[in-house]
Amino acid sequence: MRFISDAYWDKGMRKGNQDSVSLQEVRIKGKMAVFALVCDGIGGLDCGEAASGFVAEKMTEWFYKEAIMMLKHRKSGKKIEKSGLRALYGCNVEMQRFGEEKGIKMGTTVTALLFSGRRYFLWHSGDSRAYRITGRGFGGKIKRLTTDHAQNHVMLLRCIGSYSWKRPDVKRGYLIKKSVFLICSDGFRNRLREERIKEAMLPGTIEGREQIYKRLKEMTEYVKKQGERDNISAVAVWME
Fold first, then answer.
1. Domain map of the chain by residue range?
2. In degrees, to the nearest 5, what angle opens at C-alpha 171 toward C-alphas 34 and 129?
3. 3 state DSSP class of 151
4. Which of 54, 78, 206, 233 has the lowest tally of Cβ within 10 angstroms?
5. Nearest CA-CA partner of 1 in 31, 36, 34
6. pLDDT at position 118 over 90
7. Is residue 201 over pLDDT 90?
8. Could you please report the per-residue DSSP string of 27-62?
9. Does domain 3-239 have CATH number 3.40.50.720?
10. In angstroms, rounded to a whole number, what is the distance separating the alpha carbons of residues 217 and 196?
11. pLDDT digit string, tens, across residues 126-180
């Protein structure tokens, strides 16, 4: 399986950017493995930028220190899922401790995907999203792989941060050739119909990394023209 990926990150109309992204590509025993992540710091709390950046950094560290070794040794899907959950639990513990010391509340969404061989693994907490786009033309399909952990599209019910631990959703599955996975913050998808995302990211219309970047940028510019004020982040991984 060959992977081509890229990311786009924009502060939107905000003064700062509380989103964080990670996109890592490595070769393991001749095969590519890709780790992609979007974190969106919760704006109504303290230190949103620090919260998202901390989780993005720790999960990237987990990818290099643990996930790669597990993939090399062909560990089971269940063990890989649990390892990612332990890393997120560790983030939550550290952020709780920091919040108590400083007298603050902080939190971030996290949506992370790990691709290796013909498998993918997904960890998700909050209201960032992951989609899978397959097919071409009118036969193309888009499927949302995550559920928003939010009440009335406003109040988050689950996140990683200085709160009691709430287990993220975990999924795994098999990759389909000529498909695209997209992870994005709510600022990216709030003003985009899923049909528009599907049309822009149809696997049959993508030829390379530059095209992925261009289409993510075009959708970002579109939502900004539609009045989106939030930070905007997206990572796309195309496979053939």
1. 3-239
2. 75
3. strand
4. 78
5. 31
6. yes
7. yes
8. EETTEEEEEEEEEEB-TTSS-HHHHHHHHHHHHHHH
9. no
10. 14
11. 999 999 999 877 779 999 999 999 988 778 999 999 899 999 999 999 998 899 9
- Residues 45 and 54: their CA atoms lie apart, in Å, by 15
Q: How far is CA 21 from CA 57, 142, 152, 169, 239, in A?
A: 9, 22, 26, 19, 20
> Which tokens sit at 51?
């919260």
- Six-digit token string for 36: 């992609």
pLDDT tens string 43-86: 878 899 999 999 999 999 999 999 999 999 999 999 999 999 99
pLDDT of residue 41: 95
Distance of CA 216 to the CA centre of its chain: 14
Show contacts of 214-221: CB within 8 Å, 24+ apart. Answer: 216/6, 216/7, 216/8, 217/8, 219/188, 219/192, 220/8, 220/10, 220/188
145 sits in the region (left: phi over 0; alpha: psi -120 to 50; else beta) called alpha
